[in-house]
Amino acid sequence: MSESTVSQEELSKFTEVIHGWLENQLKAKTVVQSVEYDHNERRWYVRLTGEEKNNSMIVFTLGQRTLHYETYMMPAPEENKADFFRHLLRRNRKMYGFAFSIGSEDAIYLAGQISSDLVCESTLDRVLGTFYSTIELCFQPALRLGFASRFREKS
Fold first, then answer.
1. DSSP state string for 49-67
2. Residue 154: which residues within 8 A CB-CB, separation 6 or more?
3. Which of these, 109, 67, 69, lies nearest to 88 by C-alpha position?
4. Does residue 154 have a pLDDT over 80?
5. What is the predicted pLDDT for the residue at 153?
6. CA–CA separation, 122 vs 102, rounded Å?
7. What is d(CA 132, CA 53) in angstroms, rounded to the nearest whole number?
8. Which pLDDT value is given to residue 96?
9. Whole-Å CA distances, 148 to 68, 74, 141
10. SS3 for 106?
11. Could you tell me which CATH number the domain at 8-148 has?
12. pLDDT class for 92, splitting at 50, 70, 90?
């Protein structure tokens, strides 16, 4: 990853690339449901519609060195913690540019970052696609491990 910062002019260009790309996602009626932008932080809040997890909010933050992206996956597991974390760590091993992590209150996040100078539509497509597919593949199995008693059939 580049250690140098990008210029304000480059940041403006990358901001426009992200704005345009997100606008196209909304127009095309992809999994992007809505977008909000915080101009002061150069931060986008992108709501996705999914099948396994109905909604996810991805936060994109453009800095002078990186484009950081993350989403809240689920709360801390209530049970089967070893199996739950083993599942996520095994998934981490197969991912590129993303990783599951533990955040505040032991909540589970999916996050990553790229160098700011790599921002382009194809990279943003890859990031969004990876978020979507990872959430769709991992959410229900993790939920069933970490909250197993809630899924047991009542006799």
1. E-SSSSEEEEEEEE-SSEE
2. none
3. 109
4. no
5. 60
6. 29
7. 10
8. 86
9. 32, 14, 10
10. helix
11. 3.30.1460.10
12. very high
Interatomic CA distance for residues 140 and 66, integer angstroms: 30
Residue 120, both tokens: 């382009």
Residue 53, amino acid = K
Q: Is the pLDDT of residue 36 over 70?
A: yes
What sections of 62-120 are H helices per DSSP?
81-94
For the chain, the structural domain boundaries read 8-148
Backbone angles phi, psi at 32, to 5 degrees: -75, 115
Q: Which two tokens stand for residue 1?
A: 């990853």
List, as one string, the DSSP characters of the chain.
---SPPPHHHHHHHHHHHHHHHHHHHHTT-SEEEEEEETTTTEEEEEEE-SSSSEEEEEEEE-SSEEEEEEEEEPPPSS-HHHHHHHHHHHHHH-SS-EEEE-GGG-EEEEEEEEGGG-SHHHHHHHHHHHHHHHHHHHHHHHHHHTGGGTSPP-
Full-model pTM: 0.90
Task: Tell how many helices (H) and how many strands (E) occur in the chain.
Answer: 3, 6
